[in-house]
Amino acid sequence: MEANQNDELYPIAVLIDELKHDDVLLRLNAIHRLGTIALALGAERTREELIPFLDESVEDEDEVLTALSEELGNFVEYVGGPEYGHVLLSPLENLAAIEEPLVREKAVESLNKICEQLSQPQVEESFIPLVFRLSKADWFTSKISATGLYNAPYTRATPPSQESLRQHYGQLVHDDTPMVRRQAANNLAKFIKIMPATIVIEEMIPLFQHLAADDQDSVRLLTVDILIAIAEAVPKEQQSSRGVLLTALRSLFEDKSWRVRYMVADRFEKIAKAVDEEVVNRDLVPAFVKLLKDTEAEVRSAIAGQIPGFCALLERETLLHDVMPSIEELVSDQSQHVRAALGTQISGLAPILGKDETISHLLPMFLQMLKDEFPDVRLNIISKLELVNNVIGIELLSQSLLPAIVQLAEDKQWRVRLAIIEYVPLLASQLGVKFFDEKLSSLCMSWLGDTVFSIREASTQNLKKLTEVFGVEWANDAIVPKVMAMGQHPNYLYRMTTCFAVSTLAPALSLDVIEKSILPMMDKLVNDEIPNIRFNVAKSYAILIDTLKQLPEEGTVLALQKAGTPSQGCQKSHELITKSILPNLEKLQQDDDVDVRYFATTAAQGFTDAMQT
Amino acid sequence: MSSGGSDLDKAIAQLRACRPIPENQVREVCYKARELLIEEGNVVTVDAPVTICGDIHGQFHDLMELFRVGGDVPDTNYLFMGDFVDRGFYSLESFLLLLCLKVRYPDRITLIRGNHESRQITTVYGFYDECLRKYGSANVWRHCCEVFDYLALGALVIGASTTLTPTDGPPAPTNTTQLAPLDSEIEIETLNAANEIMYRYARDSSQASNSQQPSTQSPSASSPTIPTPSNIGPAGTSATSSSSGSPGTPGGAILCVHGGLSPLIDTIDKIRLLDRKQEVPHEGAMCDLLWSDPDEIDGWGLSPRGAGFLFGADIVKCFNYKNDLSLIARAHQLVMEGFKEMFESSIVTVWSAPNYCYRCGNVAAILELEEDGSNAGFVRRSNGERGAGAGGWILGSNVGPNTSNRHSSPGAGNGNGNGNANRLGALTDSVPQRRRDGPGRRYRVFEAAPQDSRGMPAKKPVADYFL
């Protein structure tokens, strides 16, 4: 029996030993194993021995304390369930006062977690007094923690307690130190969300006004979110009569600190959605225009990001007459970051403006921005063109923008070229074969020989998509000869493009083309002097085998997949595998180069495996 | 090694995503890499075509950019001249990725040692701290340092073509006048990632052509004026008249080394005799190879770095002549244009870390050497050493008998009046009559990867940033 007792004591002994160990890592490990230890001890001894012990061990490295704060949040089950949950409050209260913000954050998180599980009497008797103690503490760290602890108990408290919670929060808002006021402002928005409108109007608006008039801009900028929360809580029809709100709003727009204006700009759409229409038209439209012309580039970038969201809320007339001129000015903004931000957003205006206005207002802007000297601007425009396409149709888009796009296809920034390449199949499908052959075909082929490897790779993908659009016969005439010609290039890096193209094109080609054009070229490349080409041939063979296995005499694998009618191939396609591919693969499996042997073996394996199953 | 195994492929995929692999996997890869590297000589022989890269310095995303521009492993053959680690934020991922690729495709990628591949240097310049931060212990650093000791000290590229195939593409608007016509013998071509040809220099058969320095952009030296076939015939196509009928004659080997030369090393065979499997010493030949720099001086000079030496044009030319080299490629020094040829193109610095230290504003370059098609007889073994078929290629051996035929002054370059028996025939040709023509050199210049491809949010201040 005594030995048994010792066994039971052993874990706590180890824990205490390790908690006092010199090595931080060991102490940290011990903390992470707290749950196991508590389980071994049982709920009662955890409450009576472990928790008091932890209560006293707040003198440690921050790392250990952070872990402890986090662990305690999951401890309710170990102390005997929610009815004993309140015993955990005491150590966490100490942790919530620690200097290191990380420790406090975790402690607050855990406290809120525990509060959710407490009964109403427990909240009233234990939790709320704890919040008050922290709120009235001498040192600001406790008060900062306190600001995050009001939400959880508030919804579960009796009306008198709720009132005193609000009073205490008010004191935090009026605190002397900006650190506390900042956190009070930060948490006020959330606090407001759980209150009825009348209380918000009577008690919270004054708190907001106090913070909005703070002399620290770091406090004021946080009031934007509070304003949104208030506006969302107060029914729209009551808003316009609340003069104070509007005054506060106006002063935020015109705050002398750009950081505050940045916050307003960043949240503009949210603000607009929270207030009623009258306020939008009377106050927000001029404010929006003003922010578009702000002296700080950061602010202009932020408000540029709100353009589609905000403009969607406006009436057409207002948008066209009051807002658009200022947006158009941004196209030639001094700051490239502003122009880039505009580039990502401006296409979003197309659906709002409709076809005609897009043509008259947006297209000129696009044309100018496509010529912007900063590549990000060009890239952003290109990557969002689809939105515009949906509105005005590809024909108009291509007529007006094609010259600019063709120019971009030779852009210095290879990522811009890449974006264009991705856009070409869409253009092609809308333009039709003739137009494409005239205007874009040579462009697509030139990408095959681009100096940047990624472009060459993307260009083969592009060819596959084009084949899907224009059909096998077109591909056979227009693409295949040029791809095969690359196989004769003296530089192995460019010869390789042929292999890549074969691999990507194979599923889009017909049996005839593969037999007459592709396989003869592969026959040549299989004897290439450079091993890199030979093993890429092996890789292409793997895909060709896979394709041929499914290929009927007419049609392509891709078409079959789309139609959902898998095929087992035909006799001729199987013959091609065994006669034109396997002998070459066998040869490659005997190659002197190890990588060639590897990829050839893999390709051959793919065939035999498939035959067996 | 062809059975690369899916574990290794997974590790490569994970590292490509810039996520470190677990410690035990690092240990395993390092062990395999050591097994592989121990078989390599101090000077690894590499067949053209190959792409030569300089310092990486832990700039992982720029290494990815390099692969995007130059092609991926195993498709493109690479030779990295050291300094994979330190300074950048992702030394660990960069080095481990290169090492995994080496283990997976030993014949496609060659790694040689830089001065930063050392215990002492990495403890000061970031790699040690990075390992400690990412793994919580120095074990991974220790594993990597053991691999460092086995990295080769240099590489010898053979079979490089003396001329380039001109690349299609529009000329860069600023340099149109300097492009050599497409039908001339192209010796140097510089391409930027804008799909433009920045420079193209023809090999000039009537005068010393190797004096162009792209960084100085002197148009007179590029002499695009003599493209007529009668003039190029001898300098280029195959030198059939004198020596051998094999097409595409090799113009001598290219030595790749991280730093430069050493006063203790006069032949490449002497590098082969070093005991390299150790921490980089503070002095001596091994130290010099990793630390020295070329400089505009005569003979040898003290290096301001405190290790290695400075060496002048005469040293390089003498060394190249004695060892039958056409070019020395090295890294080790930041050059704003990404590459810099010196001493009448007898040595080139290649730098592959764009916007070095994320602040220098430089571009990076890689150097592509094309195949000349005459190396078909050589078969590489997985351990990177040459098979029996190439046993005869020992550089020292074909130096001796011909010295009288050579130009006594290296400065005279390849200015041979007869313009005829100018090129070495096959490797067996033992009557070189002039300084080796440099290999055809294609420099691909590229810029740092853009912010948003670095896996970090673009420079847009989040609202909370103020708090």
UniProtKB/TrEMBL annotation, chain A:
This is Protein phosphatase PP2A regulatory subunit A. Signal peptide: none annotated. Residues 277-354 form the Phosphatase PP2A regulatory subunit A/Splicing factor 3B subunit 1-like HEAT repeat domain. Keywords: Repeat. GO terms for molecular function: protein phosphatase regulator activity. Residues 178-274, 369-532 form the Phosphatase 2A Regulatory Subunit A helical domain. One of its GO terms (cellular component) is nucleus. Belongs to the phosphatase 2A regulatory subunit A family. HEAT repeats lie at residues 88-126, 204-242, 245-283, 284-322, 323-361, 362-400, 401-439, 518-550, 581-613.
UniProtKB/TrEMBL annotation, chain B:
Residues 203-248, 391-442 are annotated as: Disordered. Keywords: Hydrolase, Manganese, Metal-binding. It holds the Pfam family Metallophos. Gene3D superfamilies: 3.60.21.10. Residues 205-247 have a biased composition (Low complexity). InterPro entries: Calcineurin-like_PHP, Metallo-depent_PP-like, PPA2-like, Ser/Thr-sp_prot-phosphatase. Residues 112-117 form the Serine/threonine specific protein phosphatases domain. Coiled coil: none annotated. Belongs to the PPP phosphatase family. PANTHER family: SERINE/THREONINE-PROTEIN PHOSPHATASE PP2A-RELATED (PTHR45619). This is Serine/threonine-protein phosphatase. It comes from Lojkania enalia.
